[in-house]
Design goal:
Length: 966
């Protein structure tokens, strides 16, 4: 080994060591592995449980108590009686985990009786918690009414949930504006004379408290809670049994008593490390765990960031120092042993010092030591695998398409294996036969024979493409496969036709996916009911039929009450099942001729035709409500929902589909305002929304002259190289009073009023000028993508306007990309094609936006001179979890590539989505994973960084030279 190679080897090892340590420290600092740290912490906590103390008792408001005393809330005389019973029994302190923020409206003496009972006992704590004021969008503090607050001690019951929705962390102090309230359990200890100063001194204090934040809920003295055991671990007695004397008084003598709800749907049950999502722990039992930990002084303090960094760095560094003295085989054995070290350290600190050290970053660093230390062999193996993969891909590509060659008379001379598979003819059997004998092509729709394209190709000497919907029959005529095929002439040097080559490929699955795309574009994926798109089409047809028949047409706008609560409480799986069941009931409770559609979320629409009188409508609406309010059994869980229904009548409440939908929606909201679970007919006074839109239109007319419109830009990135190829210009409206108004709220209004023409021209001028300005700054030229609205596209002079803008700003047309929707191009196909061809001739790039959500026929796409398809983000969102969305996306990519089009995926937000699109040959991506839409100056920074990175890559040393490990 030469001195240079030895020096290079030492540099490489140093870089690997530094890189591993830096990676581990970065993971600690960013907490990217927090999920796995939670798993380790939770697993250990399950092995660290201890018996429940004898002097903590929970009085549960359970099903039995609700059955005895009736619906919640109960009269406060009941709670007063309970407090007196506990006082007489000699309880130490009582925590009444029930909110009394309002006076008892049914019994005005009950509040006084409860306050007297609280004073007689003298050791009762009532809860305080933060609440969001929905009316003023402001955080408030929910406290007991003054009468009760004066008679008891107050403590907060605020619970911290981690990102995974599990409670591990608590705060001993909290409050609105300042952390003035002790934790509920801590307040109980204060009542009993416990010195809480040592408890607060050992917990981490918040050094960033700002006394000026009077409307902010402030937390202080945080710690991890080591739960004593799973739900039901503490002694629990029924509220009803206590009041009826079924529980001996000795049960409460000299004990801490916590009173709270445990009945399903009544209490604030939360997932914990010892319960998870399958069996949430009631809030009152969480308070019991906090009380137990405070008394035992067992609260766990997270290790400080500096100590975490130091300990992680030492663990990784120690393993790297060992590797320098070990053989490859020995280093593997050491790695296995060292992997246990971070977990052992974490457990030792947790059990010995009640300190929590998250070990995942150190574990990952140690796990990477061995493969990175042996990177030379790994690189060689990787290169070998890549070479084998490349050879395999070349081989597969060479046989992907079926190929048949004939002579000048149409007699088969050659057939490849793919063609053998599709036709059922082996090579030797096929040779010497007429092409029509073995390549039998029919129309897929009517099964009629297609006029022989091969003969026309041989006669005319031109390439012939087989018609759409072509299918080839197998040798026995039983198997039919959809194909895309063409026949091209084979010529000699003189130009004489010597024969023909027929190339065809099996597109059966692609066509099936296209049909599925068409179905999914008009049907709801969850309930398989018609969606909003199909509803609008069918509703317009129903309006026309109603005009002809003279009978009434009725819309029922159905919104499920309480669905969001059920969805939030039990999860999306149960929520989805509930929506499916509701859709079935709506279908069954309607007539066969009625259309039922789901238009989003928990909203459905029923279209009633041939209605003779309103009593029919009322009867059907009542039937729908009765059907929906029956119990649902979903995954052994009983769910209840009701429905608010808005009703609009044609022609009284609207002359078209849009008006009927809008007015039925307004009537539905009135039904909700009237208490839900009822039906309301539309009336004119409901149309407040129309006035609001008029106000918004007035403000929009002045937005440009007041410089309220701004452009943000979102990068479009090459998935192979990571280079920024372009940006999309996105419009924003910053209103001085209304704040940031979403484009969805004013773009449609601009379309309706015609303001979109002036706004669109401003966007075009601003965006192209910005693209030119970036070039003037020395940045690499990039594509500027701009959306063209339907109103702009059909405007006369659109081509001249675009040409003038490009000429004035000096931007080359090839750097401008115009995005149009697929529905737009299908409205007036001939005019659309003509306009697009002129723009294409100018050099402008063209893209179809939100592809897959409209009505475009795949067979017509080849007529449009487009460069790029943009996959709608609704397909990308669930691409890694939803097989249907994945199938649609793959079909779009395959179809686009077969037509020599580029594909860009919108709405990429996760690494899983990115990797999936990369592995399936998607060309470009756009989304929050790389960058949100940003102002021009921040985009310039990204572009400079992208250009710098790719300059570095282009100037990097060739293979075999020294370079840093990835």
């Amino acid at each position: 080994m030469t001195a240079d190679s030895e020096s290079r080897r030492r540099v490489e090892k140093t870089l690997i060591s530094l890189g591993l340590i830096a990676l581990s420290l970065m993971l600690v600092y960013t907490q990217w592995l927090q999920k796995w740290d939670h798993v380790i912490y939770d697993t250990h906590l399950k092995q660290w449980s201890h018996p429940a103390p004898d002097d903590i008792v929970i009085i549960a408001i359970d099903k039995q108590s609700l059955a005895k005393f009736g619906r919640w809330p109960w009269s406060r005389q009941v709670h007063a009686k309970l407090i007196d019973i506990l006082r007489q029994a000699g309880s130490k302190a009582v925590a009444l985990n029930i909110i009394f923020s309002e006076s008892d409206q049914t019994d005005h003496l009950a509040d006084t009786m409860l306050a007297d009972a609280l004073r007689r006992h003298g050791h009762v704590v009532l809860p305080v918690l933060p609440e969001q004021d929905q009316l003023h969008a402001k955080l408030t503090e929910s406290r007991p009414i003054p009468m009760l607050a004066a008679a008891a001690r107050l403590g907060h019951v605020d619970i911290e949930l981690d990102q995974d929705g599990v409670n591990r962390y608590i705060f001993l102090k909290a409050g609105l504006g300042s952390a003035k309230w002790p934790q509920l359990a801590l307040a109980m200890l204060e009542l009993e004379g416990f010195d809480i100063t040592p408890l607060l001194d050992t917990q981490e204090a918040n050094a960033n408290l700002n006394p000026a934040l009077v409307d902010t809920w402030v937390r202080d003295h945080g710690a991890l809670l080591p739960y004593a055991g799973p739900p039901g671990h503490f002694l629990r007695v029924s509220y009803a049994d206590v009041l009826f004397g079924n529980v001996p008084a000795e049960t409460f003598r000299n004990k801490f008593v916590l009173v709270g709800a445990t009945a399903a749907g009544l209490g604030d049950a939360l997932p914990t490390p010892l319960s998870g999502f399958g069996q949430a722990m009631p809030g009152v039992e969480i308070q019991a765990n906090i009380l137990d930990s405070l008394r035992r002084d067992r609260l766990v303090q997270p290790l400080g960031l500096a100590w975490q960094l130091l300990l992680t760095g030492l663990l990784v560094l120690s393993s790297l120092l060992l590797y320098t003295r070990l053989s490859p085989g020995g280093s593997l054995l050491v790695t296995v042993c060292l992997l246990t070290l971070p977990v052992v350290c974490s457990i030792a600190l947790l059990r010995g010092q009640y300190l929590w050290f998250p070990p995942s970053a150190a574990l990952l660093g140690l796990a990477l030591c061995y493969p990175l230390w042996s990177w030379r062999r790994l690189v060689a193996a990787t290169h070998s695998l890549l070479a084998q993969k490349e050879r395999a891909q070349v081989t597969l590509h060479s046989i992907a398409d079926a190929v048949i060659a004939t002579d000048a008379q149409g007699i088969v001379e050659y057939i490849n294996p793919a063609a053998e598979t599709l036709t059922g003819w082996l090579g030797k059997q096929a040779q010497g036969r007429a092409i029509n004998t073995l390549f039998h092509v029919v129309n897929e729709q009517n099964r009629e024979d297609i006029t022989d394209p091969v003969s026309r190709c041989l006669q005319t000497g031109r390439s012939i493409t087989y018609p759409d919907h072509s299918a080839v029959l197998s040798r026995n005529g039983r198997v039919e496969r959809a194909i895309r095929a063409s026949a091209s002439p084979i010529r000699n040097q003189k130009g004489d036709v010597l024969g023909a080559v027929i190339v065809f490929s099996d597109v059966t699955e692609t066509r099936r996916m296209a049909q599925q795309m068409a179905y999914q574009a008009t049907h709801d994926a969850l309930t398989e009911l018609p969606n909003r798109i199909l509803l609008q089409v069918q509703l317009q047809g129903a309006v026309e039929r109603a005009i002809r028949s003279g009978l009434q047409l009725v819309l029922l706008f159905v919104d499920l009450d309480r669905f969001k609560s059920i969805n939030d409480a039990f999860g999306h799986t149960i929520g989805d099942s509930l929506l499916k069941a509701a859709g079935i009931r709506l279908k069954n409770s309607s007539r066969k001729i009625d259309m039922v559609a789901r238009i989003g979320g928990d909203e459905f629409v029923i279209v009633l035709e041939n209605i003779h009188y309103e009593a029919q409508v009322t009867a059907i609406a009542t039937k729908v409500r009765k059907a929906l309010e029956k119990p649902y059994m979903i995954e052994a869980r009983e769910c209840f929902i009701t429905a608010s229904i808005g009703i609009s009548l044609f022609p009284k409440d609207g002359q078209d589909a849009e008006a009927l939908l809008k007015n039925a929606d307004a009537a539905m909201y009135r039904a909700k305002e009237k208490g839900r679970n009822n039906a309301q007919y539309y009336s004119e006074e409901m149309n407040i929304h129309s006035r609001e839109r008029l106000l918004l239109e007035h403000e929009l007319r002045h937005a440009m002259e007041r410089n309220q419109l701004v452009l943000h830009y979102q990068p479009q990135v090459d998935l192979k190289t990571g280079k920024v190829l372009g940006v999309e210009a996105l419009l924003r409206w910053r209103h001085p009073k209304l704040g940031l108004i979403a484009p969805s709220e004013f773009i449609s209004l601009a379309e309706e009023t015609g303001l979109i023409i002036a706004i669109g021209q401003w966007v075009m001028q601003t965006a192209t000028a910005q693209a030119k300005a970036w070039q003037a700054e020395g940045l690499a030229p990039l594509r500027m993508a701009i959306n063209l609205s339907p109103r702009q596209f059909v405007e006369q002079g659109i081509i001249g306007m675009i040409a003038n803008i490009l000429e004035r700003c000096g931007l080359a047309p090839r750097y401008l990309e115009l995005e149009i929707t697929e529905n737009l191009i299908m409205k007036n196909m001939e005019n659309t094609v003509a306009t697009l061809e002129v723009l294409k001739a100018m050099g402008v790039q063209l893209a179809i936006d939100d592809f897959g959500t409209g009505y475009s026929s795949l067979s017509y796409l080849k007529r449009f001179p487009i460069d790029r398809l943009k996959i709608d983000q609704s397909f990308v969102r669930d691409i890694t979890t939803n097989p249907d969305d994945a199938a649609i996306t793959l079909a779009i990519i395959a179809m686009a590539h077969s037509m020599k089009l580029k594909v860009i995926a919108e709405g990429v937000e996760t690494e899983e989505q990115l990797n999936y699109l990369k592995s399936h040959s998607c060309d470009e991506m756009q989304g929050y994973y790389f960058s949100p839409p940003l102002p021009a100056d921040k985009i310039a920074t990204i572009l400079k960084k992208s250009m710098s990175q790719h300059d570095t890559q282009n100037n990097s040393p060739p293979a075999g030279k020294s370079k840093e490990s990835p």
